[in-house]
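Why run this: before we spend reagent on co-expression, it is cheaper to look at a predicted model of the complex and decide which construct boundaries make sense. The entries below are exactly what would go into the expression plan.
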Amino acid sequence: MIKEKLNFEDEQTKLKYRHTSSHVMAQAIKHIWPEAKLAIGPAIENGFYYDIDLDYHITEEDFPKIQKEMKKIISAAYPLECFTLERDEALSYMEEENEPYKVELIKDLPEDAVISFYRQGDFTDLCAGPHLDNTNQIKAIKIMSVAGAYWRGNEKNKMLQRLYGISFPTVEELDDYLEKLEEAKRRDHRKIGKEMDLFLIREEGPGFPFFMPKGMIIRNHLEEFWRKEHEKRGYSEIKTPLILSEELWKTSGHYEHYKDNMYFTKIDDMDYAVKPMNCPGAMLTYKRKLYSYRDFPMRIGELGQVHRHELSGALHGLMRVRTFTQDDAHIFCLPEQMREEILGVYNFIDYVYKVFGFKYHIELSTRPENSMGSEAEWDMAENALKDAMESAGADYVINEGDGAFYGPKLDFHLEDSIGRTWQCGTIQLDFQMPQRFDLTYTGMDGEKHRPIMIHRVIFGSIERFIGILTEHTAGKFPLWLAPVQVRLLTVTEKFNDYAKTVEASLKEQGIRAESDLRNEKIGYKLREARNERVNYLGVIGERETDNKTLTVRSSKEGELGEMSLEDFRDRLLNEIVKKEL
RNA sequence: GCUGGUGUGGCUCAAUGGCAGAGCAGCACAUUCGUAACGUGCAGGUUGGAGGUUCGAUUCCUCUCACCAGCUCCA
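The model came back. Tokens follow.
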């Protein structure tokens, strides 16, 4: 047999490899626990899994045993044989094998379907394939974790045990992958946030983060950047209340679609709700006066804090919280301005992500079930978004049925430095709010018309964005955002006076400098400052005091040597203005 | 919310059905030092919370809260 060389760059080969890996794991499980019932076992983006129904609870202690069995199966070099059965034959075969989940899967296939199976040694699985030719092609495989997962993802169904695994064509690649996971752990924003004292989440307020002084510096500078860029692009800014009457949320449709995620309160026996979104408030500001077509496009931004009751199990550091600040904006425009406005937002988002060095991809989410509005409106909105993306030459994938209940959207997914993606920006077209709130403007014809509303965010949530940025930079924030830009370290207390004058002169330029004047050894002070990820360290001893210089170390570039105070200051100011990572 | 796991000083982690311990951080003293931890001493705890079993619970049981992983959901 000629051995086919495996090309893991090829997505199909990778899936085949992982899919066969999952069959090997399932076979091993059946060897150890013959009573285990198999559900599904696909290849996924990062590896593969198999869902099994087994009374015995598999724990990490069982992994070595299963892996040993997997090794045996691999070295047994079973060829994978595909065969097909008619639907009835397939059904009775799986019934015979006592695999109820497979039976259910077959029953859902069309009447005339020809059903394929793959066999490797004593193990046969219902499977569409494709697969590797032989189990011995798997060179490096590891079980990663076990977790619960509902049969068919429905919480009304039985919870099965899902075993996750990963496999690679070489042991080196597996090791690299495991190292990448370790790196992700080191970069976890919850860990770095604690170490750098950026934010805090307490038992007293699950999902409600506290921002500490250093976290506030990052946050405030992000907001300052946001305001400046919006001003440049013709946006104005508003702030709407956190609490508004329950009636308003019924008008907007949020009550009906979103009430399980909302917090309610009573004031003087009247019913109120804490806002989960900013749009209804913005609608009310629109309604304060009359508009002409000449007023459009009208771009109104709001850094709006919203509260949403997220499920307790979904909370995750700053990434998933119960209160967060959306960098929201609502754009009101004429139908003929719609495409250009969407393009403008797209270019804006693209610019902002580039400042931080993020790669991203775009998804177009279309009409979900249980949505408001007519088919025609949705088609028009979806087409407008598509047109804009096509004229921008931007690539996107379609995410069927994942739109908001009031309109379709373009979602921007950021990729961080280790390849994970996070949804941040969105552009949503909304034909519902303007109708529900009866928004109008006077057209050239003197008649009343309905404005188009675009709803968008760039950071998405300031909190999440800070979380992503923390992991992306591993806590080494770009200088313009860094909580501590410079720390001056004196070799002994004799040089404290000179350090103080240096600190004062840097501060005068708006540079965030501080001095470590403690009676500690220089090595100790350096170690601490490096652990705190301070961007620039300036060592001050006898030489520097005499020469009016500093010996500078950068967290990015290492030792920079002795430098005059003026040169150091100019270097910092340039780097701050450039805003580059 | 569901399944499983975890919860011990500010942080990282030991220990045991029988007096709860270490390192780091903190404080005091000493030291005045040149690129990743100087030394000595002191202080710090109702072992997440509430019940229960027991002569005795941090340990065993029940409930509850929070966190972690995954599912579901999402900015």
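The two ends of chain A are 52 Å apart (CA to CA). Chain A has three domains: 11-185, 191-471, 486-578. Bring this page to Monday's planning discussion.
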